[in-house]
Write a structure and sequence with these properties.
Blueprint: E1 12-13, E2 16-17, H1 25-30, E3 43-47, H2 53-61, E4 66-71, H3 74-86, E5 90-94, E6 110-115, H4 122-133, E7 134-145, H5 146-149, H6 155-164, E8 169-176, E9 184-191
Length: 195
Amino acid sequence: MIAPGSVYGERIVNGYRIWDRSRSKLSALITKDFSLPLNRSSKVLYLGAATGTTVSHVSDVVTEGLVYAVEFSPRSMVDLLRLCDARKNIIPILADASRPEGYCSMVEPVDMVYQDVAQPNQAEIATANCARYLKPGGYLVWMMKTRSIDVTSAPKDVLSSEILGLKGLQVLKVMDLLPSHRDHWAVIASRANEP
């Protein structure tokens, strides 16, 4: 996808931005033959936007859609706002992802919830946001940071127990993000179509 120049110092080759899997867990997932469930008109709720590194790449994919980028840190939001000046399909939201009701006036139903937060209640955050915003048939792509949940337990044990905490979603795939990201897993789930 042709993009409007470098966002975070990444190389550009023949007009295309290089998506570094060591800087983006989503890129690491895609390099493991995961097909991103998005198209040009998709709407994405991105939880844990930080300064916008991966958000910018999602923005490149959904050129006719929207990315609702939720970030809790005012410092990170400063950089995210600069990114939004250049990309009109990103809506920055300074809010706590664990309180999805706080941005209900700004976010419409979405095709995908992408979550990359470093909080201990990650399954609860994913469940609450998907229940409120994810369309039936939509997808959750959750980048689980096991060490942010419980540093004392084995990462695989944390993974197993956290997956049980997802409510109203069917887990489709779980993928380890090694070698790019240690103790991180991608959990892909879907919301059932309503009868």
